[in-house]
């Protein structure tokens, strides 16, 4: 079928996530057909370099047959297995054990679901349940951050700090969630040096804990580096200070590693990169490199022991918790990442190169800030570099730039006014050159 015919059907029946459908009716969708390595092709035969790894998930690149075979073999052997009624299966057990061996110390227990949003729901229910069982039911308040993105279910949207999430439907934010400023140095502390700013920004957590009342705070819930918020990467002093503050007030530390996990920061997990040991950690996306939907909520011994020893039956779970094919694909994905040393190679050979290319944009008249961690980079577009003034919202400058990039064969994500670049971890240096070459052309065409 021709591109246009697909677009007609698409328009008539398919509601897309996070999409202005009236706008889409005018432009039509790009119709993707296949992917290989870091490239995706469309029905017009155009090859596009995927500068956003699908949606921050295709860490291993497209077209790996081993993952397809792992899914097929598992489906032939045991296509589905519930784990509700005293039943388990080998793929889920093996994956849970494998994750426990990889995650920071003490995170020895894993609950599976399908999406990052659901993993965050599990984390929130766990936090509340934990404090009820610990005899401190008054600890209800969860502190999250502005510009956070934790997902689209009611609770995950409430945890998020992106205002349009609150008007998109539902009585959001749900009660018991408060937000603090995020370590966004370009906007909140440009006059400080990075180390100093990290400590100041962590202090906003302590201020909020004291304002709410330390005995009422259940947890601090945050992404190690914020992806959808615009690649906001904290200084190295931030997270250790956050951990210290959480310990001081006995507040649970919850790391949403749905994007940061599985190599994005240059280490296996954001917690490794920033040197923290959370009480709960949510994983998704890169756990299967996006080949099948799976997420995990890992819990420390402290938290899980409480649920197990005092909780009785826990009325929480999903039909697809620990789906066998998804677990088999995750195991195969991790095997390849390990055997091919993809995370380590990216850290040693690609991350410094990626950073050096990003830094060439410092002098661009439209770029106010350049930030990155690992292979997650952000170029913030501003109208006035001196005053840091942004373009008016109606200009939709990020979106305009991404449209220009797509015309030239690069897909990246515009997070507000920030061009977010987060390619698959298997990208090569020449492909990085291509990606940044197109990004520059797109910026120049947007100006
Ligand atoms: N947490 C973070 C940090 C994310 O970036 C996302 C999605 O982009 C989610 C959670 C939600 O994951 P999902 O879209 O799989 O529900």
UniProtKB/TrEMBL annotation:
Gene Ontology molecular function: pyridoxal phosphate binding; transaminase activity
Source organism superkingdom: Bacteria
Cofactor(s) this protein requires: pyridoxal 5'-phosphate
CDD domains: OAT_like (cd00610)
Family: Belongs to the class-III pyridoxal-phosphate-dependent aminotransferase family.
Protein name in UniProt: Aminotransferase class III-fold pyridoxal phosphate-dependent enzyme
PROSITE patterns hit by this protein: AA_TRANSFER_CLASS_3
Keywords: Aminotransferase, Pyridoxal phosphate, Transferase
Signal peptide: none
Cited InterPro entries: Aminotrans_3, Aminotrans_3_PPA_site, PyrdxlP-dep_Trfase, PyrdxlP-dep_Trfase_major, PyrdxlP-dep_Trfase_small
Matches recorded under Pfam families: Aminotran_3
